[in-house]
Amino acid sequence: MTTFIITWEAGFCRSPHIFTLLGRISAPLFLFAMAEGFSHTHDRKAYLKRLYIASVLMSVGNGLVNAFLPHPGGAMVINGMFATLFLVGLYIWAIELLIEGGKERKWKKAGAALVMLLVPVFSGIAVILFMGNMAELSPVGRIAFQAMYTLIPSPVFVEGSVFWVVLGIGFYFLRNKKIGLSVFYVLMSGFFFFSAAGAGLTYENLFILNDQWFMILSLPFILLYNDQRGRKMKYFFYVYYPLHVYLLVILARIVA
Length: 256
Fold this sequence. Notes:
Layout: H1 17-40, H2 44-68, H3 81-104, H4 107-132, H5 139-151, H6 161-173, H7 178-197, H8 203-209, H9 219-223, H10 236-255
Helix pairs in contact: 1-3, 1-6, 2-3, 2-10, 3-4, 3-6, 4-5
């Protein structure tokens, strides 16, 4: 997604925000494609390994861009869709293992599933505790904080936060039920719209401050999927996603 504009020293920049709105449409498509791909892959470990490595590399890349190509308006690059997709896949696998372990009374399998579910949560809690004491941290402590934030993705801090993780999981378990998937998606979108509407039906509120509901426009594209495999482009997303983000960052720096 192209949601790299997050904070400004004063006011709002409306024109570039069109990229954020486009991101609201594209993010669910990424999640849907990942859920479908995860259901068909023959090697889940390799699939998750690729996403994890990509998430770490992009986190490092974001840090380098923010350090060496700072935006004069204060905007920062925070894109991290790979980490979100990694957690979606990890949680899907964990949920299935937990169900299987319970049915088969294989408690080791169920225990492994719980570890998969809880480690990212505990990582998020640790990051929150670190953030509350950043001023008191030593240089080593700051390095440890950054390492934990980068190496152990948390559903709280990945792009889209818990919401996109839940959305991706829902796509997976409803992938063969178009009506159920549609209802689920409309409800998720509606929740954000009515939450936003409570603060006022203004352009600034609905399209700048609280625009997550805009994702509803991607539903037709999701429903058009015919369950057929398209052209084999295994590594396309791993190249396209960071490349388009950083090219847009460079463009934004030039324009600024």
